[in-house]
Every structure is written in structure tokens, then in C-alpha cells.
Amino acid sequence: MPGFAIDASVIKADANRTRGIAGTEAIDWSRGEGPSRAVREYLATLDANDAEGHATAALQEPATSPKNISLTDPAARWTAAPGGPAFYAYSTNYLIDLQAGIIVDVEATPAYRTQEVDSTRIMIDRVAQRFHLKPQRLVGDTAYGSASMLAWMIDDKAIEPHVPVWENKTRSDDTLPNSDFQWLEQSNEYRCPTRHALRSERRQFPPVRLSSTHPLPISSRQQGLSMRRGVPSLSALQAFEAAARHESFSKAAAELSQTHGAVCKKVNELEAHLGITLFDRVRQRLVLSAAGAEYARRIRVHLDQIRRDTLELMRKQSEVKIQLAVGVTFASQWLIPRLHDFYELNPDLQLHIMGRDQPTFFDNSSFDAAIYFGQSLWPAMPGQPLVSDDKILAVCAPGLNGSRDGLSSEKISALPWIHTRDLPRAWLAWSETASTRVIEHSATNQHYDMFIMAINAAISGLGVALLPRILIDRELRSGALVQVHPHSIPNPESVYYSFPEQKRDWEPLKRFDQWLGAAVRDYREGCRRDRTAAVEAALAPH
User: Fold this and answer.
1) Fold (topology level) of 320-387+497-528
2) Are strands 369-374 and 102-110 parallel, antiparallel or unpaired?
3) What is the pLDDT of residues 55-77, one digit of tens each?
4) Less crowded by CB within 10 Å, the N or C end of the chain?
């Protein structure tokens, strides 16, 4: 519910305390050398207001005479409201938007309560005129709870008052003042100190009297503790937990950025609604009762969980996830080892990588893009080839390679050959082109369903494998695998990058596309350097 809060700060006037006279004295401003500039401006403002016929209706002159009037700044008000010696002062009145946490208007008045309160009307009207903002509720302290102010809020402006009722009468007829009544949310009733209930449904009440001697149900109920379904309000539990942890209302108030009185009131209301003493007041010290200590321990666990859940929700909402379908081996061997650079450049993006190899998954999934081996782009899927000139290399573990120059075709034919599902004819194509005569394989064959299995078999020394260069880049550089024969064959499949048409202009995907292209260019450049180094090594004298 959008709402405003109203409050005032006392600002000391630049007026000497000794240069003043009693407020009851008559003042002849024409005496001496004439009034000062401040006095002339003050008098001119009064004349202008009178001429316009409104005489600051919202900011009426105080009904009571000030105790002292400054001769140099007569608009300043003699006050001791902040405590300590009295001085001349003004009030700066603030209207605060509770949802945005900003000051939407300011109005200066003399440091007089009636004028401070009446400035609220000016600011509410001015904000509505300037910014087209109207609060549904107004929060203030007891000073704003007068009968006339409450009537203006409810009847004239339809604003829900969240202010304590200001009862300025001293009871002399043995009746109970407002402050003695307590609102109980669960039973929907007021209770007097003698524990008698005052329920609204027992009889039809006349319209609410806007009198300083009668409480307003709206504002008074808002002060009560919400106990819907037996659960106290979160603010009351936070106040109690902080006070229990510090064993001090003052330290709890400082931690929660609240006043000492606000924290004390919430804890007292919590105790009243629970019917349990949570704190014992021992020699002006706050000591947890046994029930209070146990309740605080349990509440702390749940408040911590609420905090963690809230932070996790905020973190998830701030992240952008890209659902990426990638072949398992390509993700493990090539993509994932390079993601550190991607996250450094794009800390606000998260990749959710799923292992997929078939083109049909886009029909019933929420994937944003895919990287896969294939002989063409998937139908009706925009994209581009990432690597289309990859080579198939004959590799094995260093222990099977007995020579620095690799193995001959004949020696390779005597070793176990490792086959993969996606390259079923690779060994036939390689053997037909690796030598002037067809190589007859005389050893055992091993078959694996996925490239990652064949790679690990080769690393383990189980035989010689024909594998795409792009999938064994790290192993070749680290020496875990070695190329045992210089002959290679073209990879019949290219690496493609595709995405749904509706994702083409999605900004996070365009950023991933840009990074992926740069990573492929770096990989190609590394391959070129490796080929150059291999040629130079072959030509070098041994």
C-alpha cells in the first residue's frame, strides 16, 4: 500500500537569545533606526497574506502567545522541545515516500507544534498538484493525531491515518483514557485495564466520532500486533530477536535503525499477545526468561532462513540464464575448460549446460542455443558452423609410442584399434590413405559409444584411437596423448552453433555468440602455431 510519512526537525535560528522581549509585551517596530531586513520581510509576508485573503489558512498563527519574541527574527519560535535550554528555532517539515524512501516535499514553519502539523496539509496538496501522488496512508507520531487533523485525513482526503490518537484532556470523571485500552487482533476487540471487552459487533455504533477523546479503529488497530493464524508480525519478531541477542533494547534499536521506544513497544505487545513473559527486568537490566531464551533460539533459526531465502531469490532474479544444449564430449573437452574467460567478461550471465546430441530436443524444450557435431545445420534452425575443417588424428598414450618419430603403419596395424559410434568407418578411411597399400589390421578391436569413452581408453593405453583434433586439444598439449602417425583424414562432421529463430536478437545470446566466436578463433590460431612448430621440428637436424 503506497504511503507517506511526516516528521519535523528543529533548526536553530540565527537569533541571539538575549535580544528578545516577552511575548506579552507590545512592540513598536518603528522605534530606533527602523526594522531589520528580516523583520521587514516578515511583515511584508504577513501583509501579502492578508491582502490575498487567506492569511495562511493552513498555517494559522499560534493560538497562544510565544514566551519570548526575537527582535531580529520575530518569525522564529522560542522553544525547548529538543531538551535543554530554550532557544529561537524553526521547524523543517518533511514528507517522505515510504515505498521509495525519498523526501518528496519540505515545508518550513516556526517551531510550533500546531503549525508543524498543519504544514502536512500544504505538502500533501502540493505533492498531489506537482507530481500527481496521493498516499493511501499517512504515518506520523502523536503530534499528528489531533481530532481536526484526523478528520481532514479521513473525511477530506480519504487517507488512512497510521498515527496514535492525541488525547490532550486530563480525565476527571473516572473514565478511562485511550491509552489504557489495548487492541487484540485475534479476538477483534479492545480490552480495558479491567480486562472487559469492547467489541464492535455487539451493537451498531453510530459513525465514528472524530474527537480527541475517542480512538479511531483504523489507526489504533494498526498499532496492534498482527496475529493472523497465530503468527506474530515479522517486525515484532525481529525486534524481540535483536533485543534477546543483545539483552538491550537500546542496542537492538541501533541495529534495526529504530527508536528505543519502538523496540520496547513491539516486545511488550508480543509478550501481551503471547501471554508469556519473555524478559525479566532485573535491577534495570534486561534478562531473558527461560521461555524467552528458548523462543529466541527457535525464532533466530527461522529469521536466518528467511534472510537466506530472500537473498537467494534476489540473486536468482538478477541473473540471466542461457539454456545451452551441447554434446557431452565437446562440453567436457573444449567448452567448459574455456568458460572461465566467459564468466570474467560476463559476470551477470549464467550458462545452464545440458548434454544433448540429437536435433529433436528443441521441439519440447526451453533451450536457447545448441552446439553439436553434424554434416549440416538442423532444419529450420538459424546458426553457423564453428569449425568445419577439423582433422581426425591417430593418437595413443605415450607408453605405446616407442619412437620419437611415431609409429609406422605396420606397427599401428599390430596394436588394438579403438572405434567410436560416430566415426564407424574412420579406420577404414585412414588405412586406405595412410599407406601405398591397404593396412591389414591383425589385433583386437574396441568399440565405444561416446568420444569421451574412447579418449579415456586411449589415455589408459588400451590402443590407438582416431579422434577429432578439437576434442583432444588439451591432451595433445599436456602430453597425455601423442599423435603416432603424421597422416590425418578430414572430419566428416563439422561443429555447428544453432538457436531458435525467436532468440536471434536476444542480447544475452548475442554476447555468448560473440565470446564463442572469439574462443574458436583463438583455438584456430593455436592449431596453426602447433603445425608450424611441428614442421620446424621435422626439418631440424637430429
Assistant:
1) D-Maltodextrin-Binding Protein; domain 2 (3.40.190)
2) unpaired
3) 444 445 555 667 777 777 777 88
4) C
